[in-house]
Design a protein that fits this description.
Helix content: 40-55%
Number of domains: 3
CATH superfamily of the largest domain: tm_1862 like domain
Number of helices: 17
Bound molecules: iron/sulfur cluster
Strand content: 15-25%
Radius of gyration: 24 Å
Structural class: alpha/beta
CATH class of the largest domain: Alpha Beta
Shape: globular
Length: about 475
Amino acid sequence: MKKYHIWTIGCQMNVADSTHVGAELEKLGYEPTADIDEAEVVVLNTCVVRQSAEDKAAGKLGSLKPWRKQNPDRTLALMGCMVGVKPSPALVNAFPWVDVFMAPSEASPLVDYIRNQMIEGELAALEQQQLQRRYQFQDDAYPIASVKHLALLGDAPVAAHVPVVYGCSHACTFCIIPFRRGIERSRPQVEIIQEIRGLVAQGVKEVTLLGQIVDRYGYDHGDNHGLTGLLREVHEVAGLERIRFLTSHPNYMTDELLETVAALPKLMPHIEAPIQAGDNEVLTRMKRGYTAKDYRQLVARIRRIIPDVAIHTDIIVGFPGESDEQFQQTYDILEELRLDKAHLARYSPRPGTVSDRRMIDDVPDEEKRRRHQLLEEQHERISAEINRRWQDKTVQVLVEDRHKGKWRGRTPQNRLVFFSDERDLRGQLLDVRITWTGPWSMQGVPADRGQVDETIANRLSAQENLPTTVSLIAENSM
Ligand code: SF4
């Protein structure tokens, strides 16, 4: 069997795009491999949101030149934001050893390229064989063509990503995404629902609906309540346990949307709402369309409407012209709001963006690093304090996989929980009592096992004067 290898860097949208490409290749008779030298087809799915990501992609591309030259039957495909909506002649000329260039979310150039090289009868037989292998469950309600974002071979993941709106029509001055992923395009609701039904039939228990501004789902079709309607429909999918959506933009988080999250039990109390900076002048230069006061009010509104909600945010430090005082505003608002997670980035100019063309990248690299580190330390402290609140509490965990001998899952608020248990718990919702907390994860014992362990530990403790039950269980769970 021919093999493919996909290398992915960047956001969750890229991860979803890669699984889509994987699924398409598997329909053509390919199977995945972790070893590039074994592969006939290699796809590099790239990101250029930060210079460091672009550098890594360019390095990988260079390192694959000998791989491609060694064997004329191999295929190298370049995908994602490095390609953009249409590959520029400069890009095509710079990398003549690339066979196929693919825009973000577009698998068809590679599929067409491979199909053109195959004999018709061979192709039809292979496709049929693949469908039968994986889709024995298939019926008319779940057409195979609708499952875009899950590869066919191996175990389906417990949690999957489903893009619902591609591209972005905003123009934040630092952002290259609108140039590379094109204007906002919402997928038809019926296609999304069919895809999610297909994913659930394969074993998926949680879906995260993706969009650069996911709250604007449907706006390009004149439907300003699109996401709320979509969430209600997804909630009806039998067998699906959890739903998340990201990323939100502060200007589109309506009460109706938040009330929907609060009202529907499968919708998790987890909101991703980037602030980017805490200073109004910087926010204006970024063209974000809100003030720090607006963001404060948004956080208060989210917390009022959705109980026990976790709010995640994005921050850029060292934006052009960001003074010490302006950075301090960012630090202060994060201290005040105590958000659950902050994705931190140092500003790097992206070619063609407004901030690159019209502003001076005047914050020295060293200073960007210092600000980044200050926020990292703050984030670690606040995160540890927030997680400590869960000590000795019981949380519901969706068990995703095993990691270093322990089960790994997530709470409704998307916090990572690890625990030991010899049972096969993959894909199950389980109550876990938290016995240890750190800034980035927590550990615990399954509540049903905890009772057993406590009984045993109490007996041992009484007999042998051992340490307290909690410390014994905590030790066992490490
Ligand atoms: S909203 Fe702004 S930061 Fe987000 S993808 Fe669109 S342009 Fe980029």
